[in-house]
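From the shared-data thread, chain only:
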Amino acid sequence: MSTETQTRAERCAAGAMTPSAFRVSQRHQETHDTWTLRMQPSTSSAPLPEARPGQFTMVYAFGVGEIPLSLAGGCTPGGAPTALAAWADSTAEERPLIHTVRAVGPVTKAICGAQPGDVLGVRGPFGRGWPLDPGQIAGADMLLVAGGLGLAPLRPVVEDLLRRRGEVGEIALLVGGRTPADLLYSDELLAWRDRDDVQVLVTVDAASAAWTGEVGVVTALLPRVRFDPAHTVVLTCGPEIMMRLTAQAVVDLGVSPSKVHLSMERNMHCGIGHCGRCQLGPMMLCQDGPVVDFAQLAPLLAVREL
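Structure, as tokens:
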């Protein structure tokens, strides 16, 4: 048995509540209060090879606390078996765990303040990710709608779809932010917009003097997007009200509710369905989600304060 296999087996035996040590290798400031951290497993920990876009991990700042964070990178690729084989054969340095974090409380501030070389604890990955298997999206138009920090869990989806560009029809990414200064991944957004095989539309709630783009809610961009509602898969992440309005808007345009997927990230705490903090009706979102289709969510979201 290899050392990596032994370490992975030991981690599984330790239980899902035991964090593995991950060392910060890079730290990049996205906005005034948001950072992207790239982490690799320490020498005593195994990588997370089966992390899928849309899943999350529990990240622990030692001595401060633990929070759930969606994966912004380091996910297992979809598509052809050769892509998965190449991923499995890569080294831990070639498949880092990437999280984008906004500093809003003690734990997130501690994580955002982690410097290269610092160690954080990671549990997971947990939950159900985005539906990206070939049988789920083959030939479909892909409409991705992100609000604010909701672009983070959709970032690996864009990267995955671009690697598999021939498997799907249109790809459209709609991004909404509070202000131009709050938009994430500015360099990547520009690179994606420069491509002729992806539609990228960006809007903000409040424009700066230098902003020449769209102003308004992200759903106002839908009439400008090319997609066939009868053959479209929608993925959306952001503030809950934005996701609910987006889902209803695309359903009104003819997209099947079962093809509209929302990332519901409510108060994850244990990640394994024990604590009950993420309950939404009959679901524990840390296991039954965070990605759930609108056919299941619509009646639950219609209940006030559920």
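Residues 3-126 form a domain with the Elongation Factor Tu (Ef-tu); domain 3 fold (CATH 2.40.30.10).
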